[in-house]
Amino acid sequence: MREQDLPHLRGVGPPIFLRVSATSAVVNIRPPARPNGIVSLYRVFSVNHNNHTLLSEGTSHQQTLHGLRPYTQYWVGVEACTCYQCCSQGPLSELQTLAAPPAHQPPPRPVTLTTRSVQLEWDEPLAPNGVIESCELHLRSPCPQPLQPVPLPCAEGPIEISFFGKRRSYNVTGLQPYSTYQLRAACFNKMGSTASNWTTVTTLSEAPQYVSPFSVGSNLTVICLDWTESFSLNGYLKEFSVTESQLRVYTGFYSYLHVPRFSQKTLSFQVTCTTDSGSASTPTIRYSPATGLGPVVPEDSGKEGISMSAAPVYSELWFILLLSLLGLFLLALLLGLLLQRALRKNPSARERPPLVMLQKNRKAGGEMYTGSCPELCSKHLSSSVFLPDRPTGLTDTKIVGSPMSVLRVPSQTDLAYSQHSLHRSVSQLIDRKSLMMEEGSWDNPLGHDSGLYVEEDEFVDAIKALRSGKKEHTMFTDTHL
Q: φ, ψ for residue 458 (rounded to 5)?
């Protein structure tokens, strides 16, 4: 019920604000000038675009308003009631709450990401609670860092202020490649500040970088190498490799190596780091267990400590195995050629053919021995018949390929008797000699085994037959091989 409807309830005044803060205020209510009854209830309300919002109610003349928004303007009025529907409202008063620290800051948003920088944007707090005067961008290095084959030591870094000002965007530089960072935004008003949640970003990868020389030491048994602080990986690690005099002695993910110590000679070590974006190498360091570190071998200018190629191919295991297999194949081929040539060697011209065994054939008229002429003649004539003189007209002709000489009879008719006599005598001696060999009658009946036994009568007859030729018609000529 409005005041114009109830003329007996008049004179409701505007509220008076005693104490005002960011979220509350104390209101003093003056009694109506003409209550026309007993006021049983006072209500305090606010009006916003013709929308009435009840802030508090009660019978007290002082009421505290809670739940106000900081740094907000309100239009507040008082309503007095004498009964359930007997109420009258007074005029509105302006209430301005005080400022408070901002709240509900949104996190920054990455816009551009590179290997060493990140561009971010952010908004003002959803509840500024005052005039935002400036903003900050905070940066820290968290744990864990990006994945690696072997977990690396990690320590969470302190919070750094990368930016301070009134802008709402900033390009953060000076970051490390393949590293994780957390960033947040914080905005300020005259009453304080508020910070957002952390935004995590990971920079892109690039080639590794040589930082410092590796350390080398030794004791009585081993030489120790440590390159933990020698490289900035800047990417996902593929391998560490250690070479000694350009010969690879280690490949793996760990940043230390123990080499057995065998002698006092000077060793030349070099460490290479390979990632998914490239590789980098340390300078070659000479080390002698007796004298310690030597001078660093200088590298080419402009390329010291950095190499985009892998280790030399001749130090790779697959290359060594390939060369070994190729060497074995060439050696087998050479041996095969040598054996083939040795097996195809022609026999010597001076080598005589093998001797043929003497075989005996029995026929109706007697026994006949077959075999090579040198065998037959040399066996019987050379061991059993001794010719002191040669018949006249016979020539001594040697058979090629045999040490045996045979007699060639001329064609004269006057030597026919000597030829037949010689043939007959020799044939008789051969037949009898062969018969004795077959029947085992080589034994000397008198107990004297001279190996040249021939009956005396037959021997004398053979000599006489040979001397029966005419000396004027005989002539011996030796024909040598």
A: -65, -40
Residue 177 in tokens: 């490649």
Give 374-379's long-range contacts (Cβ < 8 A, gap of 24+): 374/399, 374/401, 374/402, 374/403, 374/404, 376/430, 377/404, 377/406, 378/402, 378/403, 378/404
- Compute the distance between CA of residue 135 and CA of residue 187 in angstroms, rounded to an integer: 4
Instruction: Report helix, strand and coil shares of the chain as percent, to nearest 5.
Output: 15, 35, 50
Q: How many domains does the chain have?
A: 4
Count of CB atoms situated within 10 Å of the CB of 476? 13
Residue 239: domain span: 211-317
Task: Average pLDDT across each block of 10 residues of the chain; the chain has 481 residues. List them in order.
Answer: 47 88 92 81 89 90 92 92 83 92 95 95 94 95 92 90 94 94 95 94 95 89 91 94 91 91 85 94 87 58 41 69 92 91 68 54 46 44 41 47 47 48 55 52 45 52 58 48 37
Q: How far apart are CA 421 and CA 360, in angstroms?
A: 25
325 in a structural domain? no
The one-letter amino acid code at 197 reads N
